[in-house]
Amino acid sequence: MITLFENIHVALPEIIILVTACLALLSDLFFKPSFSKYSTLAIACIGLLASGWVSYLLLGNYNTVILAGLYVSDDVAQLMKIFIAITVLLSFFYSKDYLFEKEIAYGDYLVLGLFSALGMMVLVSANSFLTIYLGLELLSLPIYAMTAMQRTSGDAIEAAMKYFVMGAIASGMLLYGISLIYGATGQLNLLDVANGIATNWQESNTMIIFALVFIVVGLGFKLAAVPFHMWAPDVYQGAPTSVTLFISAAPKVAAMGMTLRLLAVALPDATDQWQQLILVMALLSTALGNVLAVVQTNLKRLLAYSAIGHTGYALFGILAGTEAGYSAALYYILVYSVMSVAAFGFLVLLSHKGFDAVNVDDLKGLNKRNPWLALMLMLVMFSMAGVPPMVGFFTKLLVLKALVDVQLTWVAVFGLMFAVVGAYYYIRIVKVMYFDEPADSSRLSFSRSATALYSVNCIALLMMGLFPAALINACISAFAP
Predict the structure, then answer these.
(1) Are 464 and 391 in contact, with CB atoms under 8 Å apart?
(2) Count of CB atoms within 10 A of residue 2's CB?
(3) What DSSP line would sit under 164-203, residue for residue?
(4) Domain boundaries, the chain
(5) 36, 86, 237, 289: which has the highest count of C-beta atoms within 10 A?
(6) For 438, phi and psi rounded to 5 degrees?
(7) DSSP 212-247
(8) CB atoms closer than 10 angstroms to residue 20
(9) What is the chain's alpha carbon radius of gyration, rounded to the nearest angstrom?
(10) Peptide bond into 227 cis (omega under 30)
(11) 120-165 pLDDT per residue, tens
């Protein structure tokens, strides 16, 4: 028993989130509603800050495997946990007023969100197929419930059903692939699986390649990569905007962490096989995501297709199959989570008093109504478009460089072409904000706290672009041999 819990301190981020979720649940249950809505938020924010801080302190430690090989603490996991904590915290804070006005149970949103965040953290530290599946289900199940929280909305119920059905199919595909790998190797630990495949490749290569197809399909659903993306636009549009905000950021980090664990750690000897599948998914996601976003008038659908395009670029890093490529994919998804929470956070903050900001036309003349908020949203759009000196420029630069380094120049050129296509619909939003006349000329304002936090969120994108070295070096060090 003592050996089992040796070095358990490296799992403190998850332990803190679990305790926080339980305390938030008790607060929402026993305190009066007028008090619990503030106490529950305070508990959630303190827990997330503490978890992120502990993850930061654990950076730079040697890889530590605990719980009989089920859990690993390394720099990849700790970096992802920091950004999961940050984006979940921002999601909670931005959603506060929105949920009150829509009469959605705020305490339930926080508790479900915390348990989902716990699943994300377990997932990115998984060192066994068992832990991967446990983390994946703990991540997904609360989000299905969150999507249906606005019970008066038929669109939300429909989105929740689509999300649940597609998520169940994805989990089933992934589990079937994992079972075939277990059948071929007799192992569940990721490193043992890698060694088993290296040893038995000649005898079991057909079964492993067959299993690989199911695993990549499951990952494609969770990443919303083409051709497994069909649920994303409908769920993003139908879910309450506060839930769309939550779905768009932190779960993407966890899904990419799961992809890196399965492909880079468990299946390195099958790289030539899974690269072919990832190549098709990355090319299709980059092309269709950006092209279909151009014709969207609904902001949530536009950003959903944009997310599919960004997933394609992150997959380019994995496609390279090198430490530099994996580092670029990690850097891309971390930065994207901050950009996404800023983009959807603005929509949540803008929605008030029965008004939902869901269409591009709702941003008309935003500069005349509030020049500062228009400037902040412009920073977000330019970062997503990859305009220097915003941090989005460096994310695309690193993944394309990783492709060039492994002689996949034609793929890099393909990605560069569709980056130009993607820039169009981001710049169109800026044009609407600055050059179109507003339908409502009244001044737009958020609360001081919301404006301050949102400004920090957006300016961080500029600062990470002006001073990118720290995060880039951390991502490179995470995959250093």
Answers:
(1) yes
(2) 5
(3) HHHHHHHHHHHHHHHHHHHHHHS--BHHHHHHHHHHHHHH
(4) 8-478
(5) 289
(6) -75, 145
(7) HHHHHHHHHHHHT-TTS-THHHHHHHHS-HHHHHHH
(8) 24
(9) 21
(10) yes
(11) 999 999 999 999 999 999 999 999 999 988 877 788 898 899 999 9
Query: Exposure of 217 by Cβ count < 10 A (0-12 exposed, 13-18 middle, 19+ buried)?
Result: buried
At 77 the pLDDT is 92
Helices (H) and strands (E) in the chain, counts: 19, 2
3-state secondary structure of 376: helix
Q: What is the DSSP track for 305-339?
A: HHHHHHHHHHHHHHHH-SHHHHHHHHHHHHHHHHH
CA 288 – CA 410 distance, rounded (Å): 18
Alpha helices in 321-390 (DSSP H): 323-350, 366-369, 371-385
Contact assessment for residue 150 and residue 156, using Cβ atoms and an 8 Å cutoff: yes
Question: What does each C-alpha distance from 427 to 96, 335, 422 come to in angstroms?
Answer: 29, 20, 9
Helix axes 129-147, 154-185, angle to 10 degrees: 170
Whether the Cβ atoms of residue 399 and residue 328 lie closer than 8 Å to each other:
yes
Cβ atoms of residues 81 and 478 within 8 Å: no
Residue 37 burial (CB count, 10 A): 20
Instruction: Give residue 354's pLDDT.
Output: 57
Q: What tokens appear for 249 in the block?
A: 């950021």
Q: What global pTM score does this model have? A: 0.94
Alpha carbon distance 101, 124 (integer Å): 34
The CA–CA distances, whole Å, from 343 to 52, 94, 266, 389 equal 22, 11, 35, 18
Report how far residue 462's alpha carbon sits from residue 80's, in angstroms, rounded to the nearest whole number.
20
Cβ neighbours around 8 below 10 Å, total: 12
Which residue, chain included where needed, has tokens 């730079």?
60
**DSSP symbols for 60-89:** TPPPEEETTTTEEE-HHHHHHHHHHHHHHH
